[in-house]
Records
---
Amino acid sequence: MSRLDMAGKLEILADAAKYDASCASSGAQKRDSRGGKGIGSTTASSGICHSYTPDGRCISLLKILLTNSCIFDCHYCINRKSSNVRRARFTAKEVVDLTLSFYKRNYIEGLFLSSGIIGSPDYTMEQIVEVARSLRLDHDFRGYIHLKTIPDADPMLVEAAGRFADRVSINVELPTVPGLTKLAPEKSAPRIEGAMGQMRLAIEDSKDARRRYRHAPRFATGQSTQMIVGADDGTDRDIVGRAAHLYDRFGLRRVYYSAFSPIPDASAVLPLKRPPLQRENRLYQADWLMRFYTFTPEDVAQTTDPVTGMLPLDIDPKLAWALKFREHFPVDVNRAPKEALLRVPGLGTKAVNGILSARRVRRLRLEDVGRLTVSVKKLLPFIICEDWRPVRLTDRADLKALVAPKPVQLDLFGA
């Protein structure tokens, strides 16, 4: 390890960090360097697109591990103690220097820092916090910082991370407690949720202090987590239920889903192949329904297969729900409440808001609705307009075949 130069360490530790999906930057505090003071900005517009700001712009992040050495032996992790991989380790100062150097070259606009466990959880957390502290206080860095915290570390250290970071995340790792016990026996679901609960209280206390006192210290604006999909026996129904629990209990900004990928020298208890990537996509769609479309976890669970507990891969969960509960359709776009319109397949939140705004001044025709959505064809069985009524179309036995997306053969040499 000592023979590696900075470039060699960066190659290893940047590659090792690619398995962590929870690096979005939505909710970052707005900071800039106007007046000639400070370094960095969360509102800059240049750089490689790696993540998203609150206003929807893509920004670049330096995404690395402090080290890929670890004292834990989680079966699904390529950096586990027993894994035969090249190891490397940055010092806190090296990460600080890299971040500043990359920023000044206009490569990045922020830092996402995680780590394997070295020495002890407390020691590792101290090093992670020191990176953020040095950037903020020693160098007046005002760019985005996301820190991956360690639930086994001292709560004071985890809270210290929140004082310097825009976002923190604590991974629950797997959707079920039996799965975590089997594949990561050194980790504890109660400890993970306990750390999440403490972070939520700290975030809420900070928000309350900011409302009361203008100059109250800043704190992380939110926390997120990640679940590995397909490494254990957890079904989509289990995953959706766990995500809803986490959102409700800990006020998470996001739950990220990462499809399990087979690793070299894998344990015999792991599956031999990764789950379909479409499964990860369907879980994100289900997550979106719960967060923005008024769907409850029970609504989403009703779209899963009653035997396997899995979401359908050929159609999205919103369409699956509409096909199963046809008695709720068709919906009159000129009269239906917002909640009913959000259940219509093919209508997004922007389209629904456009309908609600436009129908205040006129009765909407099918042509008007078509201007608000990508394709009106998918909507036809589910809506009523001034000049359109589906009649018996909604009750057709072959409705799924009519509205489901058609398989497309990709062109290997297409542009």
---
Amino acid sequence: MVTLSTTPEKFLEDDLKDLEIRSQGCLYQYLEKKKLLDGSTIFYPRVIGLRSQDNPTHWRWGYNWEERADGAWKGRSIGSIPPGAVPMIRTLQQQGAIREDIIAFIKRAKTKKTSPKLDVCKNFDNTKLKPVLPDDAPQAVVLFAGGGGIEAGMVEAGIRPVIAVEFDPTKPELSRAIAQTHHRNFSEYGCRIIQLTVQEVAQLKFIGFPRRPDYLHASPVCANFSQAHTAKAGIALETVDDLTAALAVTEAIRQLQPRVFTLENVPRYQSSQSFAIILQTLAQEGYLVDYSVVNMDKFGLPQARRRLVLIAVKGVRVLLPTTSKPIGWYEAIAHLIPTMPDSQLLPKQQQAVEQFLATGVPTPLLIERVGGRNGLKYKPAHLPYNTILRSSFTDHKGCNRNKFADIWLPDGIVKSLSIQGAAVLQGFPDWYEFPSETATAGSVIGYSVPPSFASQLFMSIQSILQGASV
């Protein structure tokens, strides 16, 4: 068990003379001890498995700084920082934010309703408590909403989604079921789900939409640009529907004039004519643009997921947030594994296990049940999982797969990865309510922008915009 000092080491150095360093402040982690009636000592937060230095939920957090008063340095601190706020605080520090802005952000994070007991074994990061947004929270419009992964991230970042457009005419029943899931999760925030295509809404001139919203987000349908839908590597099969969708997005930008426009898609979308059309419109409307292909496992998502992410802001250039150390899939869902149903490996899965054991030390493996072009895929415990797709949960006819991935443990136990486990690997908060049907729930997960990444993205944007308006 690691024991940490509650005082950052840098504040104990007598020869630290630089005024800026002394006053800037330091984020630090520590453990809280508690002696039980039986005489034993336990540490909080409680953690299943090894405690990770880079997992914010494995520690208590505080922020220390020093102020000059009456000719002497006086130590100041804020404790009980929510672990979910730690990545953003680190980002603020790396971006050179002043101490006052960091302290103001911490105080805002601490005003959110918290559970009475912070314990990693039971709701370790308070995610079952749905965020409460103030009446004056920034407003957002979302196009191609799906089940609301981007909206979940927005809500976690203190942004209120007010209108979401979601309808896929090629899968009308599934689209209606996803829209119902969206309504169940976001209607309490006043979010209205519009079951029309984005093209249809554009033809109606976006009637009823707020003008000049704080945020406008679009995740255009990406199937035609994915690896599975290309005739040759690197060549996307762009269609008329893709182009009309892009034109509808540009109409939304022109008519709504959001302060911030964001876009997410598969990496190959950046080589499309659709993306070029959107970039041209953003330039014409005076937006400063930054975009790149992001490896979301570098933002704490326990999944290897590469996506194109764009941020466009009027008058301010906003860069993507800084990355953090990847998290292995096992660390993310270890607490859920005992609750998952028992399973048996398929012959090909058993072969994969034997091949791994021939070259490596026994460790938990997460193994897909259906192989892709290169056969079955498995991931050892310390690595992020493979990209989660809608097709993982359904067969070629669109029917449910009873099992889509299995967890092999070194003691021989095999568990079937649950929807709840897949949702955690996709970065969904515990408060999000999934439908009971596997195909619908899997579609929501596979289609969605990971909410944990989205929350970091929008918290970073919010912080930079607040700094620019001072």
---
Amino acid sequence: MGRYVSDFRGERHRFDDLRAVLVKASPRRSGDELAGLAAESDAQRIAARAVLADLPLTRFLEEPLVPYERDEVTRLIQDTQDLAAFAAVRHLTVGGLRDWLLSDAASAEALAALAPGLTPEMAAAASKLMRNQDLIAVARRCRVVTAFRSTVGLPGRLATRLQPNHPTDDLRGIAAATLDGLLLGAGDAVIGVNPATDSLPNCLALLEMLDGLRARHAIPTQTCVLTHVTNAIRLVERGAPVDLVFQSIAGTEAANAGFGVSLSVLREAREAALALKRGTVGDNVMYFETGQGAALSAEAHHGIDQQTVEARSYAVARAFRPLLVNTVVGFIGPEYLYDGKQIIRAGLEDHFCAKLLGVPMGVDVCYTNHAEADQDDMDTLMTLLAVAGCNFIITVPGADDVMLNYQSTSFHDALYLRSTLGLRAAPEFEAWLEAMGMMDDAGRIRPLAEAPTRRLLAGGGVADAA
């Protein structure tokens, strides 16, 4: 007999445990179907949501989805929960939390105060009771501001990661793509390259080239070579110009072990980067990437639905005060997010849950070429996320990553979002664009043919442009 029961249209639905309630309440997702966990019918899905809505939030403290003694992520979640912050909503059910989040009482200040009191499971549960517009409305009021050389997450701002990947890590090709992005106003969140090979000499060459370009033009941003965290530690030891330490993370100890990381390794890496003291306006030195399906693909999901286990990765992220976090929402493939509808929903869920938990969330609005999705779906998602106050998006030349072989968003897409929605770049980066003569009086990026813009290609810095 199931522990949780709901009657819907004359049929009784039973759910064995809290994990079953959460997964059956989830919107349809190919990953949950692949795992054999998904709701068997829409009726069962609605019945599970009815159960979920009436569950006290305290149930998530009494019934951990992964046992405390078996999982360091569970221990992190429980040991770091701010019970004083949680007291404000302790009396609520999941449905009551949803209603409060949508009320006028949930101001930006109230949401920021609540964030350390919520667990990822609570955030994921609330999201399962929300429409897309609900996810947007709440996330828009959640502000998480971080800084290194530029400040990311301020109201009215949309930052970008400039991603100049190259299939052979050719330094000239990466430099050309970087200049292309800078000329179109991209790169205020980070200039971050995924190396085609993780060898230390290759990563060092990439770091030195990107840092030299940044320093030569006095660009107020940060650079990052997205190599494994253990490589980053070795690079710091060799005196490399490491701004941000990158790592992909997941929501269980076993899934993180599949990435070759643990909380202790992440802690060591953060301490190494902080010791360099390279930031000028802040000291947020970590950059994390997540994605629905990562734990399932590693067979490390513990029977938890992919959206909830994804939310657990945000507890890992927030423990290390990162500058940037982004979900690669459609990158893992249609086995986990089948089509444009599922990708759009997942992107809004990830952004909502992360921001609600106090994580500085961005999104790689993307899909693989074998998914039932296209660029129109990405246009929809990036517009919705910009309305929702997303901290940053990924931008690549032509929206086509020629190294990772997937479709993302372009430098021009970011210009569309800023122009259409009245958004601006990070303040330090915006001031640099103005000083370089790359921005006109209306805040628009000047055409490439205009003389002030050509100074960047000619090698001039801010002083030369003045």
